Amino acid sequence: MTDLKFRTYTGVSKVVGPLMVLDGVEGIGYGEIAEITLPGGEVRIGQVLETTTTRAMVQVFRGTRDLDTELTQVRFRGEPMKISLSSDMLGRTFDGSARPIDGGGPVIPECIRDIYGAPVNPSAREHPRDSIQTGISSIDGMNTLVRGQKLPIFSGAGLPHNLLASQIARQAKVTGQAEKFAVVFAAMGITYEESAFFIREFEESGALERAVLFLNLADDPAIERTITPRLALTTAEFLAFDKGMHVLVVLTDITNYCEALREIAAAREEVPGRRGYPGYIYTDLASLFERAGRIRGREGSITQIPILTMPDDDITHPVPDLTGYITEGQIVLSRDLHMKGIYPPVDVLPCLSRLMQGGIGTGRTRADHAEVKNQLYSAYAKGIRLKSLVAVMGEEGLTTLDKLYIRFCERFENDFIRQASYEDRSFDDTLNLAWNLLSLLPMSELKRISTEFISKYYRGEEKA
Amino acid sequence: MEKKEKNDETEMSEEKNGVIIRVTGPVIEAEGMAGSRMYESVRVGIDGLIGEIIILEGDRATIQVYEETVGVTPGEPVVRTFLPLSVELGPGLVGTMYDGIQRPLQEILKKTGDMIERGSSAPALDRTKRYMFYPLTKAGDMVREGDRIGCVRESVSVNHYILVPPGVTGTLQSIAKKGEYVITDTIAVLDTGNEKKNLTMIQRWPVRDPRPVLERLDPIEPLMTGQRIIDTLFPLARGGTAAIPGPFGSGKTVVQQQLAKWVNADIIVYIGCGERGNEMADVLEQFPTLKDPRTGHSLSSRMVLIANTSNMPVAAREASVYTGITIAEYYRDMGYHVALMADSTSRWAEAMREISGRLEEMPGEEGYPAYLSSRLADFYERAGRVSLIGSGGHEGSISVIGAVSPPGGDFSEPVTQNTLRIVKVFWALDADLAYQRHFPAINWLMSYSLYSKTAGIWWEEHIGPDFIRMKQEMMEILQRENELEEIIRLVGPETLPESDRLLLLKAEIIRESYLMQYAFDEYDTFTGPEKQYRMLKAIFKFFEQAEHAIDTGIQVSELRGLPLIESFARMGTSSPEEEETLFNSIERNSETIRNMRAGL
Ligand SMILES: Nc1ncnc2c1ncn2[C@@H]1O[C@H](COP(=O)(O)OP(=O)(O)OP(=O)(O)O)[C@@H](O)[C@H]1O
Ligand SMILES: [Mg+2]
Predict the structure, then answer these.
(1) For B252, phi and psi rounded to 5 degrees?
(2) For residue B198, what pLDDT is reported?
(3) pLDDT by residue (tens digit) across B483-533?
(4) What is the pLDDT of residue A177?
(5) Which atom of ligand 1 is nearest to the CA of A355?
(6) Ligand 1 pocket, B439 CB below 6 A?
């Protein structure tokens, strides 16, 4: 960057939406931070989105309300957005721009880092393999989470995603390992009530003192949401890779984040992509989600649980769609199961954990895990198909076998998926439960399980 | 850097720099760039970031920058290199992982640590490694472009031929003796008539230009993948092109990786284009431990990896596909069969769209630039079976398999549609199959291959005489199943005659025991053509016997209960040792169906 640091200008030429434009400036770097002093004395932070020889376009994180064109002062800092980091941040609460809101003093920095970070060299990554026991059968049994994974929850308005996320945060453990863990929580545009719920949950489980909270709530400026998750992830990287902690990052709600991006794009009059979202949203989301993982030779890890609400419960909406293309699977909640009173209402069929394969099996969970999972999937899918047939024309005409599948399907939802929000099942519990259900079916139906496991675990048609 | 090579005009001053006047994300504008060329590579700003000219207007140039541009400021210089964006070709490519503009990621890791810092660089090829060079020519030989003048052993699996670069012909004045050399050593001096040219083991080639070939040939041989649904139903050919579109999580990457592992090509170029970092880490960890079933050597000893993950700069993602295909062409020119996987071409197209958006170009369909279809076509055109330019009448091929990631899984979108107009094989991935964990989730009713006929001939010549018949019957059964399911949905299953019930059983066996193939099982992961044929025979033998049985009044429900049915599902996962016993028992048990009596 140039030597012309700390350049200050008075007056802006244009303010539109979250953006302002300055003319007659010189030597402004792309992406650098601007401190904007409003006529009333309030200071806000902005970032340069576009720069030319004499003009700079700045996005103002806490909004452009009350800016004027004559008296507003802008000072360019000559460096990109940074955050002060320290282990003392554990137990603290910040706003969406990383200013303390818990009454505590400012963070005394151990180091200061660029919040955009640099991409991890793919050859530095270690493929994540340590499975996390969340105690939730639909996840552990069928979509195992591993340390360093990014596994979002796809939810809908009114579904219990917060309850599920907090249950995961409370129960998550890697068996046989004592560990330094931490939670980093980034709220983007969620309500006060939702955020209070998380804080209470963290408090009750004792996680609060090992948590760092960044809160941009529904009535906070929307544009700030574009930096909140980056502040959170930079903190998570510090805790994980400098301090060797296993960090669980909860980001909620990604849909609000994407809306903020859309708002900026609209103000810049960019060509809109699908449903008005800008074309670079994939790249932008990737720059968040790819900050999960493990690095070879370092102790810590970053596991991400982003939460998003699917507008209209539509999984093909750009936000869930692009997220699914970047993350390593997804946990999908279903309104149907929720209406049936099943918690957690996990619709296992569209769920996926791409890193499950490396995290399960002998020495990790149990040797039969992969095959049991495959068999559960195929049996449940078959049961669901038959149930939709029955819905059209009733049970007559179904064979005995078909009826067994329907029975399996119901038991699966009621015994396996359903559990209490404080019920913590071990991998063994989950797999044994799965065998209880598979034993409802004739042995010859268990085509995805090898004979070795069948003779060990299958308990026969008559038993069930 | 060898600036100002032969092709430069005279009036050019030594250091002709431009000045940055605008920065917006990965795109910058500079003035004072008169005399630059389209696609010339430049160094941007005081950090010397790598960029490429993509628009020229008067003395202004628009440049896409391959690195993060935060901090770049108007007024900073743009330095010309007078060369187009190029890759370095020579021994040392194999086993290496590069980013989209061929920076060696393992080297960068050693230099700058776990994160890729801006402005990091390292030579693409190791200049210090010594290779044993074997001359294949002698002084005084006339050689022309593409000729093999020598050879080095690049890895246990690859003999790397040192070729006369395209456009160069002449008499060898000298050639290095057998011995160890580094790649920058002069290994031959060529008298072209006009000049004496020193040849090293390195060539440079501009990535956006296809390397020349003598003639394009029709693909005639199938490219065997060990994946049953592909080899049997929707085969790929050596030198062919395939697209594999599907929604997220439907198995594009797993199929691509399966092909990278098991395809019978000599060289694999795997491009991770805008996808996950962990997937690349997985390839990097896994492939060295896997053995090529044909040579017994590690799979990474024949592979070049390009990794420009989703969080790496988007302009370099755009370039990654060209970097990959140029490397593929280079090995093809040595006479090899190369298979290239690009995962995902949609991310490449999106990179084009992102850059185009910054240029404020007139958008076409869904915001993609109007040149999307021609760029896709140009890329797939670089695949093919060809006869090579060098002497000796050698042949080589590049097969290209591109993953496509349609938004919302909707195949009517522009990237899928434009790709389907070009490629010859279409493997349609189906979310419903993936939800049931039927993998590979290739939908058998939507997919097609235009190489089926050529492949069928090959199978009958090399593997077994009734392959085409069985394959056709298989397709008919699957289609009929689909019709029957329609009927069942309307009127229920009870009205179906026994013959239709048998058909449903047959279809189920085909789907669950043949088409379904579990990538993570030690044996199921790969099925060679002989075993595929054996499995087909076993299945069809049962079908025949079952038809007899039904004719004699046996119920399909009785057949369903037979232990035999279950054993079909174990064919794929059986080890070579178990195979014999399993197939024999299946045959024996099929025989006994004949002797079943109704009602027993
Ligand atoms: N042949 C297979 N055998 C077993 N499992 C498979 C197979 N193909 C896919 N899968 C499963 O499906 C998951 C998703 O596959 P994959 O990552 O290839 O999807 P994708 O289409 O590349 O998704 P995206 O577009 O998001 O990258 C895998 O993690 C694996 O669990
Ligand atoms: Mg993929």
Answers:
(1) -60, -50
(2) 95
(3) 999 888 887 777 889 999 999 999 999 999 999 999 999 999 999 999 999
(4) 64
(5) 29
(6) yes
For residue B364, pLDDT over 80 is answered with yes
Domains of chain B, CATH where assigned: 11-84 (2.40.30.20), 126-201 (2.40.50.100), 215-449 (3.40.50.300), 463-599 (1.10.1140.10)
Contact between B408 and A316 using a beta-carbon 8 Å cutoff: yes
Q: Measuring CA to CA, which residue among A104, A105, A110 is closest to residue A87?
A: A110
Residues B118 and A77: their CA atoms lie apart, in Å, by 20
What's chain B's average pLDDT? 91
What percent of chain A shows pLDDT beyond 70? 97
What are the DSSP calls for B291-346, one per residue? B-TTT-SBGGGGEEEEEE-TTS-HHHHHHHHHHHHHHHHHHHTTT-EEEEEEETHH
CB contacts, 8 Å: B560 with chain A: 401
User: Does B278 sit within 8 Å of A53, measured CB to CB?
Assistant: no
Q: Which of A27, A118, A357 sits opposite B520 (nearest CB)?
A: A357
Atom of ligand 1 nearest to the CA of B256: 18
pLDDT surpassing 90 at residue B587: no
Mean pLDDT is highest, among A133-147, A170-184, B43-57, for: A133-147
Token readout for A208 is 């609060």
B78 phi, psi to nearest 5 deg: -125, 120
Q: Please give the radius of gyration of chain B, using alpha carbons only, rounded to the nearest integer.
A: 28
Question: A354 alpha carbon to ligand 1 midpoint, in Å?
Answer: 7
Closest to B306 (Cα-Cα) out of B126, B103, B479: B103
The answer to whether the CB of B518 is under 6 A from ligand 1 is: yes
CB contact under 8 A, B21 and A52: yes
Q: What is the pLDDT of residue B14?
A: 46
- Average of per-residue pLDDT across A64-74: 90
Could you report the per-residue pLDDT of B121-130, keeping only the tens digit for each? 899 999 999 9
Which residue, judged by its Cα, is nearest atom 15 of ligand 1?
A: B251
| B186 close to B161: Cβ distance less than 8 angstroms | no
The predicted complex's ipTM stands at: 0.92
* Residue entry with tokens 């990737």: A286
Q: What is the pLDDT of residues A106-126, one digit of tens each?
A: 999 999 999 998 999 999 999
Assign A275 to helix, strand or coil: helix
Whether A2 sits inside 8 A of B75 (CB atoms) is yes
Q: What percent of chain B has pLDDT over 90?
A: 76
Could you give phi then psi for residue B582, rounded to 5 degrees?
-65, -50
Judge: A325–B248 Cβ closer than 8 Å, yes or no. Answer: yes
CB < 8 Å to B407, chain A: 274, 316, 318, 321-322
- Does ligand 1 lie within 6 Å of residue A350's CB atom? no
Distance CA B551, CA B597 (A): 11
Number of the ligand closest to the Cα of B521: 1
